């Protein structure tokens, strides 16, 4: 150990020292050694704490080497001015003197290499609060100036200066949160850390080579079992967590101390908190989080929460001496031991069954005293009794409304029924009442929909929303008439709703898709934190910070192409999934301040400090909460937040609360099928090109007429809403669009021409050239009979071949032009007309007349609807239709099937159901050979090729898109469902379960904004994106609906893009955007300047002179599709879907009919035809010519004899 000289020896020598002295500090010689020891003993009495209690922090070095005697001995000094010729900053030396005198520090000196070196020892904050003045601002200022100037190099400490300054700020972690999250270690639970045998036993079974929990049907994978075991371990044996204000650091001499960067406080011993009894189960999407939660509940089925220590009481006094069973039950309750938990593992003998019932009747509880509110003159306060909480072994699970049926299906799938299973109470609807608290004790799971859970926020309110503060001292309500009876509306205590949840101390609460709880004030969070008392709290989410934090495998799902991570890889070079993940992590490994300060750290911090109630982020026991933002980041300023990097606190916090298995460890147990994701570039057909050019013409017309300035210009800062609506419709139009009418296009051209002929305009030469190109395109457009017909009827055009003789012109939208183009609605009507007459001598008899009626109805109702359509605020040169339908759901169109009742009879229709056409029949020849949409033709071809062997999931972003595809699927008699945003939550859940269990349903159309999160659609192995999502996380989330555990086929994903269009340019820009740019753009893609520039740079696409004529105008199908007599037409109803939807729609129609009758109107009623119409008729949107339109309002203006009042057909 170091040798120290006495205070007197140093004083004597320093008096005669000089710059050229051979020695500046010499240890005591042997002649006065005894005297030195005596002197040191007397000095020690002057110091309150011995030097060994101080922390060695760093050194101060002299600036120059001196010609002095070099020695390896160190001596303690007690006055800094006793060190001769120490040529260092005098202000620094002054601060050392102040702190030395106040005993904040101790100093030893030496000169092993010719430099005078002072070793600084700091008194830790653990000591000296009473005897040492810690509150002096002068000393604190001196200390804060001294410490950053210390040299903490180990070599300097040993006497060989090598400058390494003390870092006063938090130790930086120079990685992104994405990197930290994805490099968390996989859970490694151990049963030896668990004291309770009732918890240790299931953990032991989970960690066995063959994991097993009684009552569970499903065999767990090992990684699933480890995660559940880690959850149990964290619940019953939480580890001690270092106070996040402190971080461990190493002294120059190799010892450890603890340092708080924010307050510059040093401690010798760590301050710890008990870890959270819960956390975030953040296993990646599709690896079985629901099963893990059910296993957790099964493994701890009868366990009880602990009575809080502050509410523990001794044995209760009884009126009479209790039986041994009663006393045993009471004792078990005080120690939170459940007899049921014991006997669930160790089955009782028959003679113990009766005492066991007595023991179970002694249900444990405890009381919380409540302070009375003060009364005033107008209100009275009823002294409240102590609040009694009963310990409850149930688990509350809160799930999004659309997932509740999926949870019920998972419970049925994984857990046995009966006594060995789980007793579940499901609360879906807001009208369902909670049972009494005593009844809730009997359940293992209380499954809430989120909306029903929020309903418990009404606790403490009456039906009028009044609180107990409205309890008056006397009734002052008015009298009834001339009587002396009051019409009393006063609030009464019995009117106040009391939630049964308040009366129980639950074992656990689990929030599925818990990233939605990353808020402080939502009703659900308030109920979960203020109303529910639960010992263990879990969030279950593969994306704990929605849209900001997710697993690297999800990142790969959105960017599965090898060239994204290995740009120099050869075409045949193969990379393992582990290599791909490593490359993806490397690309996003660095900390970017602008991204992280407003990124995923914020929702994580809010979860900790609110719902999860993790100390010290939440106040408890009189201790104030900490601001997580102060400690999660490295801030290089005393008062300001600089967000220079993450701190060790962030890393430690993630490790303490998140349970997540690394993908490499998951793959040791289970390997998901291959995921193949490719972008399919399609050449736009004539009508696709027309649509793209129409939007370019509108954008150009606006730019020219507004001179690219002022509020009329779409890209002006005050035109955000109109530009947003136009661009949304622009993106949707890449599938199909009939929104602009001929008149609207003429108006756009007229606006531009009127402007151009004016004098002194500011139109640039480039704008004039571009607008002249638009004029040339308009001439081609107005010559297109097909486009005019589609614009007038809003139909998806289908080109047919070999149509029955003499009937083509009566059905075709393009007249006599070959090939005939028939609207999808009309073709469906023609198909039904012929199919219902296949047993007749001539099934086509009356087909010509029917076609004429169909066309008449389409054109008439379209004109009526246009006239009544609401006109939104528009911009100069922009048609109003271009701004409709973008903000909400797309409009819908429903039209009655034109039908000649006299020619129809039930017997003929039934006889025709099973008729199969002969291969040589003329009716087997009519077929669809193309469409007016390249994407529709491609999708129709792919579905027909795949539907017999694989189920298909199609993501869309416009209801019109889903409607058009559904029409074609109906034509092909392929069963399908539409998971639309307009569906009620219970319908959504039913649709998912039906698609999972009904093998006859081959296609699921899903709104990407509604269905990209939380759903399990692993029966689909083909995934299509009709339009490319411009949010990478949304695309990845959508893909993981299918690519997850339970998927037994390779998953093939295709994103469709029209080559050479604005869609392609926007897609490429989106893929090139950085994380920071995506974060900045957030929900509005136009917030990105690059996207705005792409749209502003739009140009007219060339159209050949013959492109709009004949066979060249269509997007051809690879294989023609037969129209009449197709198989499957007799069985298009979906079990469990159509019957319920028909009842719902008929009920709505009946109400509407009664209302219309009272108003003197006679409109035909609607009924549910199939799953498609049910999904779309619920859409609530205004009518618009921007796509399919609502024709219901105009039905009464047509000849009612033309319609079948029992059935309506749905059209796009």
From TrEMBL:
CDD domains: SF2_C_SNF. GO terms for molecular function: ATP binding; ATP-dependent activity, acting on DNA; hydrolase activity. Residues 1193-1212 have a biased composition (Polar residues). Residues 938-1090 form the Helicase C-terminal domain. One of its GO terms (cellular component) is nucleus. Keywords: ATP-binding, Hydrolase, Nucleotide-binding. It holds the Pfam family Helicase_C. Residues 875-902, 1143-1212 are annotated as: Disordered. GO terms for biological process: DNA repair. This is Helicase C-terminal domain-containing protein. The lineage of its organism: Eukaryota, Fungi, Dikarya, Ascomycota, Pezizomycotina.
